[in-house]
Amino acid sequence: MKIKSVTILPETGQAGLFISGSTAGRNVLYTCEELEQQEKNESCRFSVYDNHEDAESKDIEEGRGFPLQRYLDAACVTDTEEIRLKSVDGFESIVTELKSKRYYFPKLMEGVSEGMEPREAFISFYKDGIPVKYYPHPTIMFGQQGLDDKNKDYFSKGIRMLVAGSQEQGFWVRGNGLRCNRYFSLSSFFELNGTEAGTVYWVELEYEDGSRRKAPAIRLTKEFWQQQAECTPEYLDQLRAVDHAGETIGTVMDTLWLFLMDETYKRIGYYDGTTVSEDFAGVVAGELQPVASQCEKRVPQTTVDDSEFYIRIIRQGQELATWHYSLAELHSVYGDVASEEEYCYYNHNMNNGQGGQRKVTAHGWLLLSLLEFLPQIPNREEIENGSVMFQIFTNDNYKEKIALSADELSAYRFILAYEQDQRTQTGLEKGDTSLWDDVEKRFVPIKGTTPFRVYCGKESANPSVYKNAAGMQVELLF
C-alpha cells in the first residue's frame, strides 16, 4: 500500500541497539528505554585474557544478561559466521568464527584447562554486579578458544550497532560537488547525523487506505551535507534526491527526513517536508561524472625476504596477487605521491585514563594511492561503490578483524605513515614530539615492530590508529 503522507511526531528517543545485516531476516531496533526494561536474570562467568600493547592481564569476570542468540533470533538471523560490532564511543570490531567452540577456564591464572566449560556469546548489562560502561548499552562477552586466546579485544562495551553477515547499503551521495563519493550503510542509519548520533525521531505514515503506522526516522540538516558528505559550499543549493532509476524526486533545501518505512526496517523512505518517496537511492551534488583512476600502473619489486609491508588481493577466497613493499622502495618509487596528513582523534588512554584529544601530522602514502597503481585493483568508481572491502593487519594482531568498505579509504584518508609529529592538548605526554600549537613540527620515525603505522581520519582512537602495521588485504566482491 502506497504512503499518502508523513507526519513528524513530537517524541524522540535514543537508539539502544540496532541489529541489521545480510543474514538478518528483519532488522530490529531497541531504544535505550526498551533495553532497560529487558529481563537480565542470567549470570555467566568468563575467563578473560588481555595482552594489549604488552600489558598482559588475566581475570575472571561475571556478566549478567542473556545469551546473544536471543537477539539473533529476534532478528531472524539465518546461518552467519561473523558479526560486526560498533560501540557508542566509535570502537569497531569483527567477530569471525562465531560458531566455533569457546570456553570458560576457571583456572586461567594458573594456566591449566581443568574444569573448562563451554561458553556461548553473552550480552551483559552488569559486570561483577556493577552496571557496564555506557549502560544501558550492553557489553558483549565471549569465551576463549584456548588458554592462550586473547578474548578481551572482542569485549565491545556500549554496543549500539550489530551487523549479522555483511552490511546492507542504505543510500549514496555522489557528484562533482563532493570531495569523494560516499556510500552510507543501513547499519549506520542512526549515527549519520553526528550532532544527533543515536537520536531516534518518530514519524506517522498514513497509507492510501487510511491505515497508519509509526516508524523510526532521522533528521539530516545542512551540517550533514557539509561535514559528513563533504559537499563544497557552492553546491549546497544544488542537492537533489533521486530514485533508483536516476529520476529526481525532490530538492534538498534544508532539513531532510529519512525513515525505515517497512516492518523489516530494511528500506529507507524519503521526506523533505513536501515530497514523500518510497524509492530513494541517494543524493546528487552538482552533476554525476564518471570517476576514473588517472595514474599509470606501477608495481613494487621488493621481495618477500625484504618485505616491510604487503598488499594482498583476493576474490572469492582466492589470492590474485600479493605485493611487497620496503620503506626504501616506497621512497624511491612512490616518492612523488608521498603525502602529509593531519589527524585529530580521541584517545582513551591519555590523562591517566581520563582520555583526551591527540593531534598527529603524518608523512607517508595514502593507501588508496598505492592501491590504484596495482593492476588487479578496479577503477575508482568500483572502489567507492561498495564492491571492495579491506582489512589492515598488524604484527600484534590487534584490530585485524576490522573489515571496512573501500570507499572509506578516500573518505577518511588512510595513510601508511613512516614518521609523525604527535601532540596533545594538555601538554607533553608519553609519545608526544611537540606541543599542541607548535608551528615547527618535530617529526620522528615510527617506532615499533614494523616501520609503519596506519592513521585515518576517524574520531575515535579505535580504529583511527593501527600500530605495527604489517599489511592490508583487499577483497574484491564482484
Kindly report how far apart the N and C termini lie.
35 Å
Mean residue pLDDT = 90
Q: Structural class of the secondary elements?
A: mainly beta
Number of DSSP strand runs: 33
Overall morphology: globular
Q: How big is the Rg?
A: 23 Å
Which runs of at least 5 residues are low in confidence (pLDDT < 50)? none
Q: Strand count, sense and closure of the main sheet?
A: 10 strands, mixed
Helix content: 10-25%
Query: What percentage of amino acids are in beta strands?
Result: 35-45%
Task: Quickly count the helices.
Answer: 9
Per-chain topology:
Layout: E1 3-20, E2 28-31, H1 32-37, E3 42-52, E4 55-67, H2 69-74, E5 83-87, E6 92-95, E7 103-104, E8 117-118, E9 122-127, E10 130-131, E11 139-141, E12 159-164, E13 169-174, E14 182-185, E15 199-207, E16 212-220, H3 222-228, E17 239-242, E18 248-251, E19 256-260, E20 268-271, E21 276-277, E22 282-285, E23 309-315, E24 318-325, H4 327-333, E25 339-347, H5 350-353, E26 356-366, H6 367-372, H7 380-384, E27 388-394, E28 403-405, H8 407-411, E29 415-424, E30 444-445, E31 453-455, H9 461-464, E32 465-466, E33 469-476
